[in-house]
Amino acid sequence: MPEFAQVGDYCPNEACTGYGKGQTKDQANIVKFGKTKAGRQRYQCKSCGGTFTETKGTIFYRRRTPEDEIVETLALLAEGSRISSLSRVKGYKEDTILAWLRDATAHAEAIEEELIAKYQIERGQLDSLWAYVGNKGEKKATQRPTKAANSGGPQ
Ligand SMILES: [Zn+2]
After folding, report:
1. Does residue 27 contact residue 16 with C-beta atoms inside 8 Å?
2. Contact 70, 61 (CB under 8 A)
3. How far is the CA of 53 from the centre of ligand 1 (A)?
4. pLDDT digits (tens, 9 = 90+) for 27-65
5. Which helix (DSSP H) or strand (DSSP E) does residue 90 occupy?
6. Is residue 140's pLDDT more than 50?
7. CA 10 to centroid of ligand 1, rounded, Å
8. If you average pLDDT over every residue of the chain, what do you get?
9. What's the CA-to-centroid distance between 37 and ligand 1, angstroms?
10. Where would I find the H helices in the chain?
11. Distance, CA 119 to ligand 1 centroid (Å)?
């Protein structure tokens, strides 16, 4: 299995009979299941009935900590908490938190959406978050619509 499985490819529930099994003709237990408040695709596993979002089990694949907990930790980091104090308060090793952050950079856009939607993290805070690992991940430069297209010129 690749390091980052494809979205909706398998059930992330370790207790499920379909856990980690990709979708095939014989193994088709994952169905689309509406969207989250943040507009992300949600899936349901028909084997165990569990639901998960497209980020779950893909961004933090192989991580034992629940994704929500990881994202919350990253949110606190973005809000200015130090890794050392988060480590003390949350009980995770600093290395672990840094590893989450490195994982997150590979899916920066998805993580940013979640941080903005759920934790009201601002753009500048995101930049300082990524600065921790000196990597902006795969985030593409956002293209602002040019005003020139809408204004000026004779009509
Ligand atoms: Zn399942």
Report:
1. no
2. no
3. 13
4. 788 888 888 777 778 888 888 888 887 665 556 656 677
5. helix 83-90
6. no
7. 8
8. 78
9. 22
10. 67-78, 83-90, 94-105, 108-119, 123-131
11. 28
For residue 141, give the DSSP letter: P
Distances from the Cα of 44 to the Cα of 9, 69, 88, 89, 127, angstroms: 11, 21, 35, 33, 33
CA of 21 relative to ligand 1 center, distance in Å: 10
User: Of how many residues is the chain composed?
Assistant: 155
Q: Per residue in 107-134, is it b (16+ CB within 10 Å) or e — as a string?
A: bbebbbbbbbeebebeeebbeebbebbe
Q: Select from 100, 52, 92, 49 the least CA-distant residue to 74.
A: 100
Element (H, E) at 60: none
Q: Which residue has the tokens 């000026």?
A: 152
Hey, what amino acid is at 151? S
